[in-house]
Amino acid sequence: MYRFLLLLVAVFTFISCDDNGKENDRILSTSSGNINNLSVIMENDLWQGEVGEAIRDHLAAPVDGLPQDEPLFSMNQMPPEAFSGFTRKNRIFLKIEKGKPADIKVGNDLFAQPQTGVIVSGETDEEIASLIAENAENMISAFKKTELKEKQRRISKSLKDDSRLEEELGVSIKFPDAYRYAKDEDSFFWIRKDIPNGSMEIIVYEVPVNTIQKDSNIIGNIIEMRDSIGEQHIPGPLDSHMITEAAYAPYLFTTEVDGKFAYETKGTWETNKNVFMAGPFVNYAVLDEKNNRFVVLEGFAFAPSASKRDNMFELEAILKSAKFK
């Protein structure tokens, strides 16, 4: 087995050196780029072969829970000689170096800040492709962490007042003032933003612990909870309401929000009574043991015939900004 530095564990610091090898301080420019846009620096023949295929299989894999296949990252490949000047300012990049010992490193702020770069090296195509496959999850996590922070930074520039959420539910979230409160009653909040030909939605509420943890069927309990809330609070046209799409079971993960255990559910919603409306959702059921409850933070989108990856990423960034008082 090759010995190499594990991502997120072996973080190295990049510094500049003069001709004598002495360290110099540098002033880094601000990074740039669209959210979830990954620069891939590698020779063209590698991109077209086994190594490029491994990168696409893992880093352009479909995002969980979307109704259509959309890649985790939009990728822009360039040969090493083109990676100079403004192209080095992209916030996230992957660099492939063939003909060197097998290794994989993650570093911060090499050419700009904030920036996360991953460098994968190996003697052969097969060796490099294997390293990518073995470490894809950590690579994705490193890039997503950087992009999530950047999205939250952008959101924080112009925030909507969330004091009512804090008063009623003891939780605050940071969301842009482009959103509006559609419903605020009985400790249930529905927050909306209009987008071209659709909308982005946030709902926040609380349920007793035994709503989700009444038995071992956690995903079934969450679906039942969502459908009940949809019937009570999220109406659709022709007396319909939002339900969890029955044809596909949602993805269930465990995570943390503000240091608290949470169930993360991703899937698609629809409306009952054969009314054609549907879209993706992400749901965080955050365990508040002190108050014997789950606080539920959910985002969902309606954008027919449009890509939804970036919409859902914005909602995820908002929900993960939650702070419990």
Q: How large, in whole angstroms, is the Cα Rg?
A: 22 Å
Find the structural class using helix and strand composition: alpha/beta
Q: What is the name of the CATH superfamily of the largest domain? A: Mog1/PsbP, alpha/beta/alpha sandwich
CATH class (first level) name of the largest domain: Alpha Beta
Query: Beta fraction of the residues?
Result: 25-35%
Main pleated-sheet profile: 8 strands, antiparallel
Provide the low-confidence segments as ranges.
1-24
How would the global form be characterised? elongated
In the residues, how many domains can be counted? 2
State the helical fraction.
Answer: 10-25%
CATH-defined fold name of the largest domain: Protein Transport Mog1p, Chain A
How far apart the termini lie comes to 47 Å
H-E string: EEEEEHHEEEEEHHEEEEHEEEEEHE
Named at the architecture level, the CATH assignment of the largest domain is 3-Layer(aba) Sandwich
Protein name: DUF4837 domain-containing protein
Organism: Salinimicrobium marinum
Pfam families: DUF4837
InterPro entries: DUF4837 (IPR032286)
What report would you give on this structure?
InterPro entries: DUF4837 (IPR032286). It holds the Pfam family DUF4837. The protein has helices at 44-47, 50-59, 125-155, 163-169, 218-233, 309-319, and strands at 11-13, 16-17, 23-24, 29-30, 37-41, 74-78, 92-98, 103-108, 112-113, 116-122, 171-172, 180-185, 188-195, 198-208, 242-244, 251-257, 260-271, 278-288, 293-302, 323-324. The protein has six helices and 20 strands. Residues 1-24 have low confidence and may be disordered. The protein folds into two domains: 11-155, Chitobiase, domain 2; 163-324, Protein Transport Mog1p, Chain A (3-Layer(aba) Sandwich). With 325 residues, it is an alpha/beta fold. Helices cover 24% and strands 35% of the residues.
